[in-house]
């Protein structure tokens, strides 16, 4: 299995890929190698997955923005919900999701968040560095599975700026 990220194509590229796939299935039907029903089912499945990918592409920045805002306003606390690590952020989804739900920042369950971060890891590896990384929250005691985010690139991805350092 290839571990490199696959870039998320733009609308024109996706339309071109679907059209090319449709042409190939039409050729298979005309050659008698595939039934018309199978071709229709296959094209329906491609269109469903295409729509699903579009929805995920729209939901991922919203989720990352919600996480960044929760960290900034104190809804998510360091050591409980996340740990800063190597210029990034290790987010424990099992504890962060309920806290975000209680604060009405996100209605997504843990499973949905994990699926969106997996999508981010597949297509936006510069933002979502890892999707299932073990990180120590309390030295020698509390090791949890986390999602690693690059904070600077996450701010750029959602179109916000990192909070300024206060001047004293």
Structure notes:
The chain has one domain. The protein is elongated, with a radius of gyration of 20 Å. The chain has a four-stranded antiparallel beta sheet. The relative contact order is 0.13. The protein has five helices and four strands; from the N terminus they run ααββααββα. α1 packs antiparallel against α2 and α2 packs across α5. The model has no long low-confidence stretch (mean pLDDT 88). A hairpin with a 3-residue loop joins β3 and β4. With 168 residues, it is α+β, with helices and mostly antiparallel strands.
Largest sheet: 4 strands, antiparallel
- Strand content range: 15-25%
Evaluate the radius of gyration.
Answer: 20 Å
Individual helix count = 5
The computed structural class is alpha+beta
Q: Looking across the biggest beta sheet, what order are the strands in?
A: 1-2-4-3
Domain module count: 1
What does the overall shape look like?
A: elongated
Number of strands: 4
Q: Which percent range fits the helix content?
A: 40-55%
Which series of helices and strands comes N to C? HHEEHHEEH
Low-confidence stretches: none
Q: What gap, in angstroms, lies between the N and C termini?
A: 51 Å
Instruction: Determine the mean pLDDT.
Output: 88
């Amino acid at each position: 299995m290839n571990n490199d990220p696959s870039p998320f194509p733009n609308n024109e590229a996706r339309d071109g890929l679907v059209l090319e796939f449709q042409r190939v299935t039409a050729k298979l039907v005309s050659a008698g190698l595939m039934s018309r029903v199978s071709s229709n089912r296959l094209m329906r499945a491609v269109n469903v997955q295409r729509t699903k990918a579009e929805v995920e592409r729209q939901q991922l920045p919203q989720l990352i923005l919600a996480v960044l805002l929760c960290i900034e306003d104190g809804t998510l606390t360091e050591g409980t919900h996340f740990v800063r690590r190597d210029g990034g952020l290790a987010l424990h989804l099992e504890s962060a999701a309920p806290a975000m739900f209680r604060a009405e920042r996100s209605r997504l369950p843990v499973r949905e968040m994990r699926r969106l971060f997996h999508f981010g890891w597949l297509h936006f590896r510069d933002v979502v560095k890892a999707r299932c990384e073990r990180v120590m929250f309390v030295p020698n005691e509390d090791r949890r599975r986390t999602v690693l985010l690059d904070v600077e690139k996450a701010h750029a991805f959602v179109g916000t700026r990192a909070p300024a350092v206060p001047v004293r």
